[in-house]
Amino acid sequence: MNELGHLRSEGAVALEENAYARTRQEPAALQLKGIRRVYEQGRVGLEVLKGADLVLHPGEAVALVGPSGAGKSTLLHISGLLERPSAGFVFISGADCTALGDGERTAIRRREIGFVYQQHRLLPEFSALENVVMPQRIAGLGKGEAFERAGALLDMMGLSARASHRPAELSGGEQQRVAIARAVANAPRLLLADEPTGNLDPRTAERVFTGLMEIVRKSGLAALIATHNHELAERMDRTVSLTDGLLHEV
Ligand SMILES: Nc1ncnc2c1ncn2[C@@H]1O[C@H](COP(=O)(O)OP(=O)(O)OP(=O)(O)O)[C@@H](O)[C@H]1O
Ligand SMILES: [Mg+2]
């Protein structure tokens, strides 16, 4: 991964964070400060993100919109600690994750963040239930508890009758609902979803989105959901638009 180095001014950021923490009960689930991302293309750099800022509060569902190629996936990957920005800061639940090593970032990701991809990325050789159990076992939860919670989550997504099916034996909408159950299996504080209904027909998209919002509302987690669907965007608490490398409130 190519990094241009982080523009750090730790003192200033720490002060601002303290002031922020005092004004609110809980820290922001996600805060992005001046996020830049440059993809090196031979000699020319393609600057996809040019200083994006965002504050996402606990319990808030925010739609991320923007034209294809605007950098929504890039922004979500950076927010989910899957990629590093070229410059800027990523705070998860108030903690600056920018300069942490890979091990610590992975630990925070497992504990605090759920990620839903446009393609479900379920493990093909495991059942729906096992796919939801897996992240919990990795996080150290006992077998009984993990299976119980996985069952409850699949139930919540209307998939009890499909628990033993492998991904290939599920419809696209069902696969995506399993992926959502998996993403929230470890009770993350932040859910990031990259066009989770992008590949689905309107009716199925509606069902998946309803399930997703139900989990967001019941659990009080914060969600940032990229979508090209303005109808779905309007059902979230607010919308931010990514244009010319910056985030704007819509
Ligand atoms: N690994 C990479 N190397 C070079 N350029 C990349 C890389 N990944 C993405 N890009 C470029 O960065 C830009 C933003 O890509 P990104 O996938 O974040 O857009 P997006 O808003 O998610 O688009 P879509 O709505 O089509 O999913 C695109 O122009 C893309 O070509
Ligand atoms: Mg994308």
Order of strands side by side in the largest beta sheet? 6-7-8-3-9-10
Q: Any idea what the radius of gyration is?
A: 18 Å
Largest sheet: 6 strands, mixed
- Please work out how many helical segments DSSP would assign: 8
Contiguous low-pLDDT stretches (5 residues minimum) are 1-23
Order of helical and strand elements: HEEEHEEHEHHHEHEHEE
Number of strands: 10
Mean pLDDT, nearest integer? 88
| Approximate strand percentage | 15-25%
Between the first and last Cα atoms, what is the distance in angstroms?
32 Å
Structural class: alpha/beta
- The residue fraction in helices comes out at 25-40%
Principal-axes shape call:
globular
Ions, cofactors and other ligands present here are: adenosine-5'-triphosphate, magnesium ion
Task: Kindly describe this structure.
It is built from eight helices and ten strands. By secondary structure, it is of the alpha/beta class. A six-stranded mixed sheet has the order 6-7-8-3-9-10. A hairpin with a 2-residue loop joins strand 1 and strand 2 (44-56). The two termini are 32 Å apart. Mean pLDDT is 88; it is low at 1-23. The protein binds adenosine-5'-triphosphate (ATP) and magnesium ion (MG). Adenosine-5'-triphosphate binds at residues 39, 46, 48, 66, 68-74. Residues 39, 46, 48, 66, 68-74 line the site of adenosine-5'-triphosphate.
Structure, briefly:
The chain is α/β, with parallel strands linked by helices.
Descriptive tags:
single chain; disordered N terminus; 6-stranded mixed β-sheet; 10 strands; 250 residues; 4-stranded antiparallel β-sheet; 37% helix; alpha/beta; binds adenosine-5'-triphosphate; binds magnesium ion
